[in-house]
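Before relying on records like the one below, remember that each one covers exactly one chain. Contacts with other chains, cofactors or solvent are not represented anywhere in the record.
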Amino acid sequence: MPKGKSVNAEAARIIKSAIEDHEFYHFAVDSSRKVTIVDAGVNTIGSALAGVLVTDICLGGLGKTHLTFKKYGSDHLPSVFVEIWSPAVATLGSQYAGWEIKTEDYFAMGSGPARALALKPRNLYEKIGYRDQADEAVLVLESEKLPTQTAIEYLVDECDVSPEDLYLVVTPTSSLAGSVQIAGRVVETGVHKLVELGMDPKSIVFGSGFAPLPPVHPNPARAMGRTNDAILYGGVTHYTVNMDDDETLMRLVSAAPSSTSRHYGKPFYEILKDAKYDFYKIDPDLFAPSVVSVSNMKTGFTYTAGQVNEDILREVLGQRRLPKVDHQT
């Protein structure tokens, strides 16, 4: 990561610019409670472009997000492509949804740069060797509701900033922005899996990848299922690393794709139901892209494991191919 770079300062620059043009992004902005709350889909329709912006914010300005089309089997689907420099800080230190925000009247999963001020979770920041210093904080809340006053006061205290300097961006899973920003976690999911397997996060110098953009589902639980399935069965990633040992690298890559999990092969919504909606009962090996490819700068070799599962993708994303219309009379 460039020396002296602040993920919160970069994200604040992005969100301030977006607020000036909030109608274009279909945001709603509320500063009546001192903090700035940006609604990207709770009481507004939001937009896919808003999701692109939210993903860039989650990455702390250390990556770029694009909307594109990709082919999955015989289906051409809108997709989210992400490229990330300084992957350890951008993904684990910022984008990772590692902050469970729970007060007496509010719940959300928190991601984005403000985590690097509150150090949520602390051990992860020790592992990547990063802690942000900034006067402003930007946090993305994955929730179907806007934050309560109790939650706001808790977040101001944890981030240790003035209320006027805290920006809270709310993206429900059942929204366009939510679908984009979750699919935009495809590279982060792979980084997290590789690091859990034993890779030094500081050895990863660049990451890129894409996943299909899940159609919005009105049911939050099913929307959560779709957004996870997009990565588990359609996420394709590539990483550039600096490692001395290709034998170790091959072992890590082989174990990285979602297909290594005992729960692989079923829609995530079904897996979640079977686990009685307890994430801790789901095999952690499942949370990974479908394809992981890694190039080693020190040896020149690239290793790839996994494959896209077009059949499950078509099922979980609600794809229905209509019969050909016969125009003959």
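The chain has a mean pLDDT of 96.
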